[in-house]
Amino acid sequence: MVSNSAGAWVSRGRAAILELLAEQHAAPVVELEARICDRPWRDQPKPIDPHLLTKARKELLTEGLIGEVVATTRGGGEVGVLHLSPIRRGMARSIEDAAARKRLLIARWKSWARGSKHMPNLIGSGGEAVVHQSLLASAPYGYRVLQPTRGEVATIFEQPVPGGALDNAAWLLTMDLRTQTPTTPYLVPIEVKNVRHTLYPNHWEIYQLLHKAAGLANAHPEYPVLPILVCRKAHYRAREFAKDLGFLIFDTHDQYVLPSERIDLTHFEEVRTELGFADLTITNQLNPHLVDWFSGVVHREAQRYAPRFMEFGRHQVETFAALRRERLRWRHRTVWLEELHRATEEHFGNVGSWAPSEVEYG
Fold first, then answer.
1. Residue 80 — φ and ψ, nearest 5°?
2. What string of DSSP letters covers 22-70?
3. Edge-to-edge strand ranges of the sheet holding 186-193
4. 61 phi/psi in degrees, rounded to 5
5. How far apart are CA 255 and CA 28, in angstroms?
6. pTM of the entire structure?
7. Which domains does the chain have, with CATH numbers?
8. Rounded distance, CA 7 to CA 322, Å?
9. Euclidean distance between the first and final Cα of the chain, in Å?
10. Cα–Cα distance, 190 to 161 (Å, whole number)
11. SS3 262
12. CA distance 161 to 165
């Protein structure tokens, strides 16, 4: 019988990392996660959770079975690349060549995500474009998009959005099925996090949305607020967290890149295949699955999720403000997360297992 304990999955993660490095000679962490966490590695029954792969990687580093070399790329960024350790005789040159190649590919990919005065952030803009087109296509199902031409929403109720501009926002009008009359419209703030890492409840990106949404809800409590996060991939514990706090998450399972003449398509394909980024996609068109989700799931779940956010989530502004700080140290983040979990449990009773004491996050 196959064991599904956390320890068993860590052991599978260790084996997968060692096999991958033996095959590739060198690989950055994002490649490990793309090949082992986004899809099953070889004969594994399913993908390995990133936090368990992180534990496996740390164990191997501590035991000296793998090593890491951090070097600066031509673009000025630091990239860490893992390799088997100790380096066997005759393998040093192969590892050095593979590591240099992986650093080059990572630098290319990061250049699409950084943006500059000469070129937009093609990855951030790509995700926002796909969501905007999908939201516009959902308009016949009750959405009034606040900024139909550009997506980004900086002001609502003629006031700046608390905490900064939103990637998108809309009013959602639903119908009372019994009386066939419109209900009070929902205000739907939307943030798009088109990032490679799997989002957990400890990631700051989630709280950027919640902080802004709470500010809007507190300023105008007469309108129920339904926050929506669109990302490449969220962990199931993030879904438990969303259910408890009263917001919705949609996984695209793609990392979008805005079409641009500045992208060399040969280079793009090399990044996809050599780093295992199989979901990297050049597009600015709608996602039909997201349109279906906006049109169906959001309508069905609004009356369940928005009241929770208005009853509890909107009152956690101070906590959200702290947790949205990208550079907040883990020991401090843990304190805020544990307090948020405790307060949620005290308010609602039985809640999900997303506190830091209950899971080692990736």
1. -95, 135
2. HHHS-B-HHHHHHHHTSS--TT-SSPPPHHHHHHHHHHHHHTTSEEEEE
3. 143-145, 168-172, 186-193, 228-231, 248-251
4. -65, -45
5. 18
6. 0.94
7. 6-114 (1.10.10.10), 122-358 (3.40.1350.10)
8. 32
9. 27
10. 12
11. coil
12. 6
In whole angstroms, give the CA distance from residue 147 to residue 168: 8
Distance CA 306, CA 313 (A): 9
Residue carrying structure tokens 């980024």: 277
- Number of Cβ within 10 Å of residue 330's Cβ equals 11
The pLDDT tens digits along the chain (362 residues) read 557 899 999 999 999 999 999 999 999 999 999 999 999 999 888 999 999 999 999 999 999 999 999 887 666 678 899 999 998 887 899 999 999 999 999 999 999 998 766 667 999 999 999 999 999 999 999 999 999 998 999 999 999 999 999 999 999 998 776 777 777 899 999 999 999 999 999 999 999 999 999 999 999 999 999 999 999 999 999 999 999 999 999 999 999 999 999 899 999 999 999 999 999 999 999 999 999 999 999 999 999 999 999 999 999 999 999 999 999 999 999 999 999 999 999 999 989 989 887 666 65
The encoded tokens of residue 12 equal 């599978």
Cα–Cα distance list, 205 to 15, 198, 242 (Å) = 31, 11, 13
- What's the sign of the alpha-carbon dihedral 281, 286, 289, 294? positive
